[in-house]
Write a structure and sequence with these properties.
The protein has 238 residues and is an all-alpha fold. The protein contains eight helices and no strands. The protein has helices spanning 2-23, 28-47, 51-75, 80-108, 116-137, 149-161, 166-193, 202-234. Helix 3 (51-75) packs antiparallel against helix 6 (149-161). 29% of the residues are buried.
């Protein structure tokens, strides 16, 4: 939701920051890698029960994820490789942080079933990401929804900052990520249900090209034969 409504505004506001970081010699890939390292630090802090420190490292993990795109655009280095690297690091960071929260709940809650909440949120988050990736590979748009990655990071950050809210926030995240997965599924299903012009089968295209070549060859031979016949008719008879 935030990504769809405010992404363009964020990108415009971050252009000066991106140019300054580029001028300082920092690359987009370095920012992405730093965010991944901070995600590891977040997971370690949460596993040891220091949620406030985990919140701090989580912020340090999220900020480079916002800035790497601005730096790439400012330096003219946007590429499929960078986008792929960023997406992979995002998925690894989600798995590390939510996995650490699951371990924390397992070791602190009297009912270990609560530890499955972050696992369920992670599963739905991965499904949301997969839906978008698969839809875009097929030429459809699957962006949007009530809880994309930005909303998940904000909600989880609040849960780390205020421990008493952690479980209620995880329950809310699970509900909203499930709704988002359904929203994206319906969106792509509707796009895919619209009839598209059917492409000519490959064999038929090949046959048409061969027929066209054969026609041109026959025409050239016919013109060549007519030219030879005319030349012979003009030769003096001996």
């Amino acid at each position: 939701m935030i990504d769809g409504k405010f992404r363009a505004t964020f990108e415009r506001g971050l252009r000066p920051v991106g140019r300054n970081l580029k001028n300082s010699g920092i690359t987009a890939d370095q920012l992405t890698a730093f965010g991944g390292v901070m995600a590891v630090a977040t997971a370690v802090a949460v596993c040891f029960g220091n949620l406030h420190l985990g919140f701090f490292f989580g912020v340090l993990s999220a900020v480079p994820d916002v800035l790497d795109g601005a730096v790439a655009k400012a330096s003219g280095t946007t590429s499929p490789r960078g986008a792929f690297f960023d997406s992979v690091i995002d998925r690894v960071a989600d798995a590390l942080i939510l996995g650490a929260v699951s371990y924390y709940l397992l070791t602190t809650q009297t009912d270990p079933a609560w530890a499955m909440l972050p696992v369920a949120v992670l599963a739905m988050s991965m499904l949301i990401s997969y839906e978008r990736a698969r839809a875009e590979s097929l030429g459809f748009d699957a962006r949007g929804g009530l809880m994309e990655r930005a909303e998940r990071l904000i909600a989880l950050g609040i849960g780390l900052l205020f421990e008493v809210l952690l479980i209620p926030i995880l329950i809310l995240m699970l509900v909203l990520t499930t709704v988002t997965a359904v929203q994206r599924f319906v969106k792509v299903w509707q796009q895919a249900s619209i009839e598209r012009p059917t492409s000519v089968p490959r064999q038929r295209r090949i046959a048409r090209r061969r027929a066209a070549r054969s026609t041109r060859t026959t025409a050239r031979r016919a013109r060549s034969g007519d030219a030879r016949a005319a030349w012979r008719s003009r030769r003096p008879q001996s």
